[in-house]
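Progress report, Aim 2. The chain analyzed during this reporting quarter is listed below.
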Amino acid sequence: MSIGQLESAIELLSDRDRPDNPTVEQTRDGFERMMKHIGGDTPADVSSMDIGGVPSMLVRSERAQDAGVTLYLHGGGYVIGSPTTHLEMAKRLSAASGGAVLLLDYRMAPENPFPAAVEDSVSAYRALLESNAPEQISIAGDSAGGGLTAATLVSLRYTGVPLPSCGVCISPWVDLEGIGNSMDTRAGVDPMVQRDGLVSMATTYLGEASPRTPLAAPLYADLIGLPPLLIQVGTRETLYDDATRIAERARSSGVEVEFEAWEEMIHVWHLFAPMLDEGEEAIRSAGNFIRSKRQAAALGS
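Predicted structure tokens for the chain:
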């Protein structure tokens, strides 16, 4: 790792011009501008489409030759983020996995609180099944999108819908109360995520729902029967214990879990791939996992 690369990423986070008590729109705009600044120019075909009534962006790298597709659920605390903020990451994941990536523009809070995001991701997946075998599909997401990935899989299993080949949870947010020990023990080294901000976003997202509602906080969900999961997390994250706890719960439920703890990495370091080698390496690892599980599921079908 280049220490300079990581310091540059952290400096970018620290030096952002943020107003006091920003509105939701200001926070959304700030995230969009930061990701535009990070940039990236991975070649890919990108098209807008509607999938199951949900607007989305279909991304296919020039290097993607397979028929598979990954339904990608962006992070942002269920309040901010968009397909645009995660477009470069999706291009790289498409190249790494060999298939297309469908970036879902799911509804967010406060305009559309829980369970709108879960409803949209389930609707999109059901629509994908109309033209794709389940073993060709994977579901992935980061931060809130990582939690939404788990919640979507649980909802699909509960309703008897054929499950995808695998799921990928990147820096997953699965505990909406922020009670993991790492919320305190790693607060001093995490430049992105702190308890007060998480609790505020959770309150906005939950509306009238309990913070332990399983499809909002999948740490409390029944995970039996889920497909293989890859969980990636950085060791500097306050959400580190979210990742370790959901991994432990999944394993204890009989789910095949691959767990990757990336030394010194920050929250969703993948977004910084244009300027951070480990971001690209983690995306490649996720892509290899998706490719291998998709092939294994096809052979077993």
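The CA atoms of residues 214 and 221 lie 4 Å apart. DSSP finds nine helices and eight strands in the chain. These observations will guide the mutagenesis work planned for the next reporting period.
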